Each structure stands twice: as structure tokens, then as C-alpha cells.
Amino acid sequence: MEKDAKEKLIEAGERLFAEKGLSGVSIRELSKEAGANSALISYYFGGKEGLYAAILEKQFSPIGDLLDAVMGIKASPTEKIRGYAHNVVMVHKKMPFLTKFLMGELLNPSKFFEPIIHKYIERIYHFMTETLNEGIACGEFRREMDVNSATLALAGMMNFYFISRPITRHFAVGGADQDEQFAIEAVEIFLGGVKKHDGQ
């Protein structure tokens, strides 16, 4: 089935905005890349900024789906964290431009950072802190652990891998399942640090 003009504009915008940012892309470029009339950008999205906002929402909404899936299962805090790490890999595979949009917005935030990106980052933070606190309360995790530091540590471990892949792929060769293998190893390293051990 042939893609319609709206889909083509979104796909073209994903590539161009990920490379150049919101201000670096013109309506003319977008319409040329999509092979669509430039008037359709206003028709479907209300203009270039509306298209950018729609693309940001598309890029980051799988994070919400990820959290809904993990929070919706009856599992221990440890298993929730493992599930979260596995699903982070799935999100990055589904959205290969995600890290570029995230880095672009962190370095040069647009007016859409707060209403779109911030809300998903905040949801991750709340999920992680709640899960870690749950683990402390039930005796799975160390009582003296700083929950905020642990949350940032796991987020850094998981996401820096994808941010740094253009460099690390040249020397960290692991085959087709490298992403999944990293997630397994990284989350076990993290859990090794937060788990309650004998005598604690």
C-alpha cells in the first residue's frame, strides 16, 4: 500500500529534523524530500512547527507505551527493572532517530521540549524512583541507597550506549543481538549494585 502525503511528510521530517534541527530545515526542503506539495504541511500540521511537534510525539510516545507495559505487570521490583531495560532496547530499535532528537532538544531546546519530551522523561524518573523505593521497602534493594542517584545511573547506562553507538560500533562488535546483550549485561551490573546483600 502506497504511503499518503501525510506519512511521507512525517518520514521526511524525521530524517531532516534529526539531522538539522527545527530551525535548520525549510518548508521547501521538507516538501521536496517528501515529494509533496508544501501547502500540505499547513493543511495537515498547521505549519513546520506543527510537523516537528507531531514527529517529536511519535518519537517519544513509545516510551509511554514501554512504561505502561512494565507498570501493568505483576512483578518484583527487580523484574520490573529488567523489563524496563529490555523495552528500552525495543524503543531505540523502533525509533532509530530518537537519540538525535533527544540530544538536539537537550542542547538547544525548542518550545516543544516541556510539553512533549519533558513529560516522558519525567514519567521514566517517577517509574524508576517508585520501583527502587518499592524494592527498598520489600527488602530487595539496599536501604542506604540514594534512589535519585541510582535512577540517573541506570538512565545513563541505558541511553549513553545508544548515544555513543556511532563511535562504539567500531570496536564493540557483538553481532546482530548486541543491543539485547548490552541491556542484559548493563541491567545485571546495575542490579548488582542496588541489590541487598547478606548483612545489609
Helix/strand layout:
Elements: H1 5-20, H2 27-34, H3 39-45, H4 48-71, H5 77-94, H6 98-107, H7 113-137, H8 147-163, H9 165-168, H10 178-194
Helix pairs in contact: 1-2, 1-4, 3-4, 4-5, 4-7, 5-7, 5-10, 7-8, 8-10
Short characterization:
The chain is mostly helical and 200 residues long. The chain is built from ten helices and no strands. The chain has two domains: 1-46, Homeodomain-like (Arc Repressor Mutant, subunit A), CATH 1.10.10.60; 52-194, Orthogonal Bundle (Tetracycline Repressor, domain 2), CATH 1.10.357.
In words, what does this structure look like?
The chain has 10 helices and no strands. The N and C termini lie far apart (60 Å). Helices cover 73% and strands 0% of the residues. The chain is mostly helical. It has 2 domains: 1-46, Orthogonal Bundle (Arc Repressor Mutant, subunit A); 52-194, Orthogonal Bundle (Tetracycline Repressor, domain 2), CATH 1.10.357.
Comma- or semicolon-separated keywords:
Tetracycline Repressor, domain 2; single chain; 200 residues; 2 domains; mainly alpha; Arc Repressor Mutant, subunit A; elongated; 73% helix
Separation of termini? 60 Å
Oligomeric assembly: single chain
The level of helicity is: over 70%
Gyration radius (Cα, Å) is 20 Å
The name of the CATH topology of the largest domain is: Tetracycline Repressor, domain 2
- SS-based class: mainly alpha
Q: Structurally, how many domains make up the residues?
A: 2
Within CATH, the superfamily of the largest domain carries the name Tetracycline Repressor, domain 2
Unreliable spans: none
Number of helices: 10
What does the largest sheet look like?
A: none
Average pLDDT score: 90
Indicate the CATH class of the largest domain: Mainly Alpha
Strand segment tally: 0
Overall CATH architecture of the largest domain: Orthogonal Bundle
Overall 3D geometry? Answer: elongated
Please trace the helix and strand order, writing H or E for each element.
HHHHHHHHHH
How large a portion of the residues is in β-strands, by DSSP E? under 5%
